[in-house]
Specification:
Layout: E1 2-7, H1 18-31, E2 35-41, E3 57-62, H2 80-90, H3 95-108, E4 112-117, H4 123-130, E5 137-141, H5 145-153, H6 159-166, E6 170-173, H7 176-181, E7 190-193
Parallel strand pairs: 1-2, 1-4, 2-3, 4-5, 5-6, 6-7
Helix pairs in contact: 2-5, 3-4
Length: 200
């Protein structure tokens, strides 16, 4: 199978658990004989804390990613242009990221898309891009995506669009709490709770 993983941060950049989980699952799937590509960001600030598996194909498609140390896209800033970019990055649409992913999906033709974290790279746009092809899409919930989208998109009127997208996505929640947190803004096509990750 051709598998495409999507994660806003990926090795060598590490901030929390989802990028580590994405790497472990991608490597395991590769060992099982699947063709694996990870799509991630080209800019990650100074989060370099680990090494990247040289046998894993990684495509740095997205720009910009939130630089956590500098809070570059902090929504509390007074500059309206920077604030608008923050809203788009964390919950909305960054057109260049959505186009880059849609083009890659068209060329690579994945048979499954596994999304680990679409935050900070234009959440709604990224999810729409993932759903442009025929491949089923799985959103791996290791963060409160609904809360972040709601916080940043209420004024942008994208919440109905986000709810419609969720109805076409399958989801894996790493805990009961994450399942509850991420069903406040609509239901997924399916939702399965697998504590701390995935059973192979």
């Amino acid at each position: 199978m051709r598998l495409l993983f999507v994660s806003n941060i990926f090795a060598p950049h590490v901030r929390g658990g989802y990028e580590i989980g994405c790497g472990q699952i991608a490597e395991h799937c590769q060992k099982l004989g699947h063709q694996v590509v990870v799509a991630t960001s080209a800019v990650c600030g100074v989060l370099e804390k680990t090494s990247r598996n040289p046998r894993l194909r990684v495509e740095e498609l997205f720009d910009p990613v939130y630089e956590y140390e500098k809070a570059i896209y902090d929504r509390t800033v007074s500059d309206p242009q920077r604030r608008s970019r923050a809203e788009a990055a964390f919950g909305g649409i960054l057109p260049h990221n959505a186009r880059a992913l849609a083009s890659f999906i068209e060329a690579y033709k994945p048979e499954l898309i596994w999304i680990f974290n679409p935050l900070a790279i234009g959440t709604v746009g990224l999810l729409e891009a993932c759903l442009t092809g025929d491949a089923p899409c799985v959103l791996h919930l290791m963060d409160a995506v609904d809360s972040v989208v709601e916080q940043h998109q209420t004024e942008q009127f994208l919440l109905p669009r986000y709810r419609r997208l969720k109805a076409s996505l399958h989801a894996i929640a790493c805990s009961e709490k994450m399942a509850v947190e991420n069903t406040r803004l609509g239901e997924f096509a399916s939702l399965r709770i697998i504590p701390n990750g995935v059973e192979f």
